[in-house]
Amino acid sequence: MKYAIVNLGCKVNRVESDDLALSLERLGMQPVGRDAKAESGTLREAGEDRCNADLADFVVVNTCTVTGEAEKKTRKAVRRALREHPGAVVVVTGCAAAIDAAVFESMDERVVVVGKREIAEASQSGEALGLLIPALARDLRSRPLLCGEPADAALEELRVGEGFPTRVGIKVQDGCNNACTYCIVHVARGRAWSRPADEVVREFARYASSGVNEVVLSGINLGTYRDGSTDLAELLMRLLDASETTRIRISSIEPKDVGDRLIELIAQSGGRIARHLHLPLQSGSTRVLREMARPYSAKWYCDLVDRLYQAVPELSLSTDIIVGFPGETETDFEETTRVSQACRFSKIHVFPYSKRAGTPAAERLDQVEPEVKATRSALLSELGARLRKEAYAKRRGTTEKVLVEACGKGMTESYFEISVSDEYAVGDLVSLILP
Predict the structure, then answer these.
(1) Buried b / exposed e across 93-126, counting CB within 10 Å, b at 16+?
(2) pLDDT by residue (tens digit) across 407-430?
(3) 196-226, pLDDT tens digit by residue?
(4) Architecture in CATH for domain 168-393
(5) The domain at 2-156 falls in which architecture?
(6) Which residues form a coiled coil (predicted)?
(7) Based on the number of CB atoms within 10 Å of its own CB, is 384 exposed (0-12), middle (13-18) or buried (19 or more)?
(8) Which of 48, 87, 167, 298 is 20 to 30 A from 105 (CA-CA)?
(9) 429-433 and 399-406 as β-strands: parallel, antiparallel, unpaired?
């Protein structure tokens, strides 16, 4: 049996897809072709890699629905999987499936929609997915499977080695209690919940002892992590105690969740917690932020950034910004560019606003014209490229620990990809002077 996984969307999806790939291989399946697992254990993105001439018996499309464009891309990915893998069971899971299950079920009788939590529980428990998905079970009855193994046995296996990323992601949180007016993820993912801290520490320790040199903590709203009295800062302290060598990277975190304890911990860790944060801004206009239902003003965000730079001068700061949100004026956009320059972002992910049906913003009558959005997106992207060059220029000649991710390529602590000597092995964490 052969499988393919099409991964769309956020870093949490990537971790979930890698967990699923491991589960499928435990069932005796193999990925189609060598390109099928790419660097992450999944087809990285619809349209990015083909499955060669190899056909899969089982295709999973892990979907995204954060924007209208993401929704279109998801439907295209499912149609492509049906077309390129005739006869395969196509399982659609993820956020888009949670919102519009009927849309995908109507595409073809081979499509099976499965809830994300069901997929996650099956992957982590070691239960055969054939028992979970009737359509797959029909095809697997005559095939040998590693079924019914205890949950602990599954958890002992690690997403390391060929086909899996060098920076290993650990999902510690899911769901979101916020309701930004442009976003529907809180509906698709549900209320926020967190994994038990003891479980996270055990998983981290296993990766550390296996030689993994960087672990990325991920979650839909990571900063809300809470297990009893253990918050994200306390969890990080426990992880630091579990390994003296493995670097920890915090994935995207909401501004309001960055408190003094977390800032102090990053500052005192000496790089063991990567001095890089992805801190979504979304807009530099306080008026637009209010209409997005973002819980801060532009000034509050800038003050937080000033505190971060003061405590962690080496900090590299990346962000997300939406341009062309309904009602955004030229003045609003100018404020966004001003804030971006003041915050000295090392990378800006620019998103032209895309209507997502079912959100308040999509119903507004003051939508920004596509041409205006395109112009603003280009201008902000140009600014972002300049800021990134400036941020790296300031680091030239300084020493950072670099994780070797492929032959001749590495990722710095500050999240810049650089060329490294071929003498270093993939997975090494080495101190280098940045060229």
Answers:
(1) bbbbbbbbeebbeeeeebbbbbebeebbebbbbb
(2) 899 999 999 999 999 999 999 999
(3) 999 999 999 999 998 999 999 999 999 999 9
(4) Alpha-Beta Horseshoe (3.80)
(5) 3-Layer(aba) Sandwich (3.40)
(6) none
(7) buried
(8) 48
(9) antiparallel
